[in-house]
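re: that chain from earlier
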Amino acid sequence: MASLFSRRSAAVFAAALCITQLVLAQSPAPLAPASAPAPAVAPSGSLIAQPMAPEQFAACVQQLGDLTGSAGRPLAREDFLRIATGARYDDRVRQSLLVQAGEPTFWWDELAATTDDDRVRDGQRILAANLATLQRIEAQFGIPKEIVVAIYGIETNFGPSQGRIPVLDSTLTLACLRPCPPERATACISRERAYAAVRLLRDRKVRPENWQGSWAGAFGRTQFVPDSFEQLGVDFDGDGVADIVNSEADSWATTANHLRTRGGWLSGVPVYMEVTIPREQQAAFAATGKSIRLPAQARKLSEWVAMGWTGFAADGQPAPLQAAGDPEVYPFLPVGLPGPAFLVSRNFNTIYRYNNSERYVMEVALLATRIAGGPGFFTPWPTDDPGLTRAQVRELQAWLQQRGHSLVQPDGVMGRHTRDAIAAERAAKGLTPERRAGQRTMQLLMQP
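^ sequence. v structure.
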């Protein structure tokens, strides 16, 4: 959601599997991201260990009604109960919260799927067909049009994947499954999100008949959670309503408003610059099993240049690092060395505020670069089995169907049934027992 996501977002592979911190953690957070990141592992013995009984959910809704005085924005108890008592517990929310980190996910898998040639071409078509509108949004909010279109592509695949769970149901279910600590009478994220959903219905800012979204309550073409949309929604098409479900212009402007208002954007400064680190400095960036992101080491780009860091030209040849205004940048290495290395700007942090996921930021930034006609990454990932595009996943899925795996659907998403089938076929070929296939593995599996 404005995914993480809502990546995530909602229908894309990355948003479903990206392991990020749960936005619903009940520590104070003054500003929620626009979209919701992926679920984290649930603690044993928690409320999400089993489905919530109807009477338990109804009692929770009543308790939430008693606490409306703590809402960040005015909400009468009577208004809350009038609207909220029509909500239903949705167990799909609990199931999403229970997603485990058991399925291996790699940067090269997720970026191969989310920034493939098909999505680049679709983004370029969106950009060309709506150039005047996107240029006006860029002029008003200062956010590059390619970034806005890329978020649209990552969040909902340019519109069709907005989610199918009623937002009122999901937000109230979340508030009941992730209740605030009893000692806190002030607003907290899960409760405030539910209150915001009720206020949007109360004020008729959304249409209840088609108000559906993700498990975490993110909705619309660029996946905003209710509390972010309530504060940042923009009517850009001039019809008097900020409608991010049906209006692309409103969705794009609302996204740009979030990036400007909650993060700030440095005009003319790239989100990332791929770099080569001098050999004598590389030991400090060796792979540790985690990404290396060092905002505390931000310094002027010219200082990194003075330390011997270099960039790449459009053809992949070494080139001096340069950016307008000599901005402050800091190192970011998704998997450490060996692997791609970057210097990232404040614009990285701005997208991160939209969806708290490093992978999400780089998906958006890479897709935006490619939509604008720029290159992908030059440094290879440290793997001999690179990730599959969605077209390749569909090809593999069709082959798996022919092999008798009837539950597999050729949808381009590496879901559970596809991974089950891959594991079975790997075993049949005498390969290591894994549930993943990359380009090399796909060829091994499909060869006669």
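The chain has a mean pLDDT of 90.
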